[in-house]
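Subject: mismatched residue count in predicted assembly?

I count 872 residues in my input, but I want to confirm that the predicted structure covers every chain. Input:
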Amino acid sequence: MNETAYAQVRVDLVDLHRVLVQSELVVWTAGNVSAKVGDGHFLIKPSGVAYERLTPESMVLCDLDGHPVEAGLKPSSDVFAHAYVYRHRPDVGGVAHTHSTYATAWAARNEPIPCVLTAMADEFGGEIPVGPFALIGGDDIGRGIVETLAGSRSPAVLLRNHGVFTVGASARDAVKAAVMCEDVARTVHIARQLGEPLPMEQGDVDRLYDRYQNVYGQ
Amino acid sequence: MNETAYAQVRVDLVDLHRVLVQSELVVWTAGNVSAKVGDGHFLIKPSGVAYERLTPESMVLCDLDGHPVEAGLKPSSDVFAHAYVYRHRPDVGGVAHTHSTYATAWAARNEPIPCVLTAMADEFGGEIPVGPFALIGGDDIGRGIVETLAGSRSPAVLLRNHGVFTVGASARDAVKAAVMCEDVARTVHIARQLGEPLPMEQGDVDRLYDRYQNVYGQ
Amino acid sequence: MNETAYAQVRVDLVDLHRVLVQSELVVWTAGNVSAKVGDGHFLIKPSGVAYERLTPESMVLCDLDGHPVEAGLKPSSDVFAHAYVYRHRPDVGGVAHTHSTYATAWAARNEPIPCVLTAMADEFGGEIPVGPFALIGGDDIGRGIVETLAGSRSPAVLLRNHGVFTVGASARDAVKAAVMCEDVARTVHIARQLGEPLPMEQGDVDRLYDRYQNVYGQ
Amino acid sequence: MNETAYAQVRVDLVDLHRVLVQSELVVWTAGNVSAKVGDGHFLIKPSGVAYERLTPESMVLCDLDGHPVEAGLKPSSDVFAHAYVYRHRPDVGGVAHTHSTYATAWAARNEPIPCVLTAMADEFGGEIPVGPFALIGGDDIGRGIVETLAGSRSPAVLLRNHGVFTVGASARDAVKAAVMCEDVARTVHIARQLGEPLPMEQGDVDRLYDRYQNVYGQ
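Triage response: the counts match. Full output below for your records.
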């Protein structure tokens, strides 16, 4: 990627943060998206900056240890979690993080979201797992994400008492997973309020996942 | 219908997909509307295209077997369900599909929505039924829709572990049914959270349905 | 009032229907507002017209029996309920009707909303009562509204299995009551989901109501 | 501060009331924000004025006893609560008040919101406490706020059967606390609907609070 490509990624990241806001996945400054650029860097939201004030230039370029490589704004407080994911998952091109309401409610109870909807089989290929509680600022959150996703087809992971991290081939895919994670977290929650959702057979989950990953879209 | 009429239908379909978004019935690309044109074709949303990028030209013209009749974008992954409905219900001019939250929660539990609101009697003439679980990609979903609606006055049907399909004389009527389906699914759900809604007498349901279908509007 | 005053009332009514939409109290065409003009007439929403298509000219002028006095659009299907209220409550200058979600959920269970919030004491002066089930099209709904409100300070009444009617000195006051009715219906519902709200003393309810009605505002 | 500074504060206050509306923390006119200016005054919303009609000039300048110091609009009905807070908490530069739904639901049950989310530890440093029931119009509400916050790191306090008051170094900080209070009130409520959230260890709460207050942001 060259300088110009980074410019486009910066524009896309502003737009993707706007999607988080419009999808009501974040309040105030509590959520962030990053995108890998080139082999050894990623761009991420600056810390504590209001979404409506984000500009392409405000996105912070970091190396894969999570350190900014240019003078300017400080990166998101979650930068080390993003960095850990990029170091250990070379297939990942984008990471998103939210405290979206329903997904975080499952995380507060330390419960995975069971796969009882066709839309959930499509995108997540099974349940959305919960990783451990971890403090911000080091490798603990990143390790929790990577280890929990290792046993799953899901691009989303809940972290206990915390919120949601999602990964994707691109930042847009990660944001899509964050949007759909909240959607299924909400629907399954509401279904369970008045009884038990019917289970889906694993074979059906597999067939739906395979079709959505390989046939759906243009 | 001629070429010009199709152009208007395409514009209307873009607008109706916008209604799905504004009514919060869909997230990302998970929902679609189609409209029958002429005797043997229908127009439908392209697969996996974001709602804000839909244009009149992007709508895909298909025959009643669900196959596109022009080069261009692939139709919605749900195209065969729409096609089945048009083949077996010549009175239907429009079909809508969503995973709207509350309706899908009833579907996840395999429960019909009981008719306990006057607005529900008006539009649905009784309970909103639930059809079987069916995999996407063939005639199974379409057959589930048509067979379940056969025993009902409702223009909406829930599909188990999946979501909602609605039908109407026009695409706009189908979207109206989708909007009202979610509205009553939500209100009845919330009513049941703190007790049991009072039942309505069948005679009253019949009188309300008759009046709304025959007197209401201009 | 003269011709010019009616023009302003028509503009205000379009705006007040927009408030119903923005406050998420209505979907599709299911809600309406009217305003008394002069001693013997009122203006009301036309039947089945989408909110975004309402114009000042589309509002229907009716006499106090609910009959339109000009050629043009048909009035709201609820016109006879509005007319009954104006005939029996000369102090009322505006009426609003919605099926707003949480209020209608209380109505579906035939439960009044208990007064457990200071904001509810301010506006409603006590519980929001529930009136009887009644069919649309004659005097039954209007009579249910007037008789139920007779024993109450509340400008809002729930009708069993149906929805909400509110009254006010003006149409704007009626819409305000509809907005606040849904707000307190929602808050009290949510409070009760996890336990019992604490009761308020009648003396405190009286003091809050008196202050809000007589001191609040400009 | 000089005349020009007040002009900017007035503009900011209009903007912050807009944030309350956009964050869905208030309906109609039920919520207000104030900002201290100079040592002995504060600016506050006028009573009963719709949010969309607020202008910088409409904000009411009051002394620390809550009395307006200029001819013009009457201040918010909650002015004496704001004044009491400023008199007893010289560190406070802004106060916000809402009846936001989920927080008010906890208040209706007289229950503090337990600290079971990292985002809650960040902003509130522990549970969000509940103060006593108090009538509007004198010092009682202000005293309830100040005394309840005295034993807490939280910038937010629930008042029984009433709503939320928040404080901050600036009006913007107070509004931020109001936004995050409703967000965590909602998430913890929803978590508890289907079980018990896992507790967090006090040491972790302390570490998160310390980091967020001292490291987060630019």
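The longest helix of chain D spans residues 171-193. Marking this ticket as 'not a bug'.
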